[in-house]
Amino acid sequence: MIRSPGHPCGGRGLRTAGGGTRSGAAVAFLLEGKDEEALHNIRLVALDLDGTLLDSSSVLVPGAKEAVRRVLEKGVGVTLATGRMFRSALPFARELGIDLPLIVYNGALIKDPESGEILWQKLLPLEVATSLVLKARAYNLAFNVYINDELLVEDVRSENITYSQQARVPLNRVDDMLRVLNTEPLKFVAVHQGPELDLLEEEVRRDLGDRVYITRSFPHYLEIINPEASKAKGLALLAASRGISPAEVMVIGDSFNDVDMFRYAGLAVAMGNAPPDVRAHADYVTGTNDEGGVAEALTRFILER
């Protein structure tokens, strides 16, 4: 069953491996009763980008790149599952040698990195997108709208510029967002450091309810997509298309938009830099994104088996 992070469900019964943790080292947890033999059958790995594959400077570290290369050489499939735009994730996929379809926009789009074929897409209805723009305006928050893999903004604020620089995609400024909303967008993101973002989330949940799927890749990014989409849904579709069961899937992530993948996959790995509420849903907690956590997890569960 695929459930969103907001689903009333507890964690996965974590215990500390070895009875404790060490400062500055990989912090490891294993699920009680996990069948280690089942871990020999991993056929697909889904990797988040920001806070996971990428370090704190948004750079793909050599250790992670080498580990992914070796995983691919073993015949295990690898994909990216990220909140980023396709055009933002694509350079990393190419650098890593990934040829499987990419799960982007938090699962609202699955697209082949080589052919550009769209395998799955769920857009926000125009009336929902219009409501989100009006609500963000009312709170005077910076926001992004994504149409046809383009990043659209109404006001070019410092938050928009920082977002654009991190994603390495250009900003496209429009005078009136409502006038360009004649095409359904893939995603809406409000960007803000402060309590107003929480207030906006409360209002959206109250007024739009199950007409939207709300998540966060960072505490200051309120990301909204079609409720029929999520990273878990995208991953389930990709796996099923290749005859791969959830038990044969390993996922690695660090934030709240990864929790639904954790619930779906046979092996869920959280980064050491993930918030406690995210780590609680994982089977294993590896090192941070600055400590080579991805390489450590891939080595432990795939390369050394």
Can you put this structure into words, describing what you see?
The protein has 305 residues and is of the alpha/beta class. A six-stranded mixed β-sheet has the order 10-9-8-11-13-12, with helices on both faces. Helix 2 runs parallel beside helix 11 and helix 4 (126-138) packs antiparallel against helix 7 (195-208). It starts with 13 loop residues before the first strand and ends with a helix. It has helices at residues 49-53, 62-73, 86-96, 126-138, 158-167, 177-180, 195-208, 231-241, 259-264, 276-279, 293-303, and strands at residues 14-16, 29-31, 44-47, 77-80, 102-104, 109-111, 118-121, 142-147, 150-153, 171-173, 187-191, 213-215, 221-225, 249-253, 267-270, 284-285. The chain has two domains: 39-121 and 230-303, Rossmann fold; 126-225, Hypothetical Protein, Haloacid Dehalogenase-like Hydrolase, Chain: A, domain 2 (2-Layer Sandwich), CATH 3.30.1240.10. It is built from eleven helices and 16 strands. The chain is globular. A hairpin with a 5-residue loop joins strand 12 and strand 13. Helix content is 33%, strand content 20%. Residues 1-10 and 13-29 have low confidence and may be disordered.
